[in-house]
Specification:
Phosphorylase Kinase, domain 1, 10 helices, five-stranded antiparallel beta sheet, three-stranded antiparallel beta sheet, alpha+beta
Length: about 350
């Protein structure tokens, strides 16, 4: 696929047309993912818009750089393709997307958005893209409209990792339940998340101003990959995807699957239930996984049934020793509930 060719699965539509019904009201943040805005349509319809510039320098770029840019574009557009039409209360919903290249006029529209007028860092970036668009006529861009969410689980953990407040016991259990249900739904479509960690778990947006509203949702699908499909004819996957602290050992190589997500879920659920501070996660996880220090998992009376055993079995270093699928997960907790799948 040529770098300027439009993905056939994504609508051919200019981002400028979105502004006929959307107002980018608030700038939410930026990073390697691009720029994120809170968008408003009408009085109460809120969403988030992610704008990602694919960093292609010029027409004379080296072949290797060209291939990497195209690989990045395909990876990012996969977020929309895989999640299109997927709706679950514990998943961030992807509403719309377009990868129509930006023109000078599109970049100029962004530069004039009121919420950016005092953000000189972003304006400087946009000015660079504006000049690049002038030189190239258009630049590859991916824009995704998605459900607006609240704060991340990481932000919640940073606030509540100092002490074990009994008032939060049911909250911690609910977080674990919601995370699992979202992940299980993804897996029912044979989609791996591949970057399951607290930074990618979102609380719901609250019109009442709550910082951490339920339900909790699994989000950020930029690293997702479908297995057992035409996309994986070679039966191999990109190694070392996602955050190294939460990555399953086998995911450092090319042959892994849904069990790698369940491994990450096991670590995150342990972090939520037992209150492991962020600075201690790497050492605690390493001692549990690689040193088999299972005594580090200290069950509390209010945890879900057998959850300490689940954490240990989900995070075994060797795949053959680990829970590898959801049927096995159900069986480990409630043998009598294997058929119905109701485990909480």
């Amino acid at each position: 696929m040529d770098a300027m060719e439009v993905d056939p699965d994504i609508p051919v539509e200019s981002i400028a047309s979105w502004f006929d019904y959307l107002t980018l009201e608030t700038f939410l943040g930026s990073g390697s993912f691009g720029y994120v805005f809170k968008a408003v349509s009408g009085q109460v319809n809120l969403s988030a818009v992610k704008v990602i510039f694919m960093d292609v320098n010029n027409q004379m770029q080296e072949s290797e750089t060209h291939q990497q840019d195209e690989a990045d574009r395909r990876r990012l557009s996969r977020e929309y393709r895989l999640m299109k039409g997927k709706k679950h209360e514990n998943l961030v919903e992807i509403l719309k997307s377009t990868d129509t290249p930006f023109t000078v006029e599109d970049v100029d529209v962004l530069q004039k958005i009121p919420c950016l007028q005092n953000n000189y860092d972003v304006l400087d970036d946009l000015h660079t893209y504006f000049r690049r668009a002038q030189r190239r006529t258009q630049i590859p861009t991916l824009c995704i409209q998605m459900e607006l969410c609240g704060n991340t689980l990481r932000q919640w953990l940073n606030i509540h990792d100092e002490s074990d407040d009994p008032k939060l016991h049911s909250v911690r259990n609910q977080i674990v339940k919601d995370m699992y249900e979202g992940l299980k739904y993804l897996h029912s479509y044979k989609i791996m998340h591949r970057d399951f960690r607290p930074e990618n778990i979102m609380f719901s947006f609250s019109l009442m101003g709550e910082d951490f509203a339920f339900p909790v949702k699994v989000g950020d699908f930029g690293q997702c990959r479908q297995i057992h499909s035409e996309q994986t004819k070679t039966k191999t996957l990109t190694p070392e995807v996602g955050n190294v602290i939460y990555r399953a050992p086998e995911a450092n190589f090319v042959n892994y699957g849904i069990s790698a997500d369940l491994y990450s879920f096991g670590l995150v659920s342990w972090e939520v239930l037992q209150i492991i501070k962020q600075n201690d996660t790497r050492s605690m996880f390493h001692r549990l996984v690689h040193d088999s220090r299972t005594n580090l998992v200290k069950r509390s009376y209010w945890w879900f049934r057998k959850w300490e055993h689940l954490i240990i079995r989900l995070t075994k270093r060797r795949l053959q020793d680990r829970i590898k699928g959801h049927d096995e997960f159900f069986q480990a907790i409630r043998p009598d509930m294997l058929v119905s799948g109701q485990i909480f």
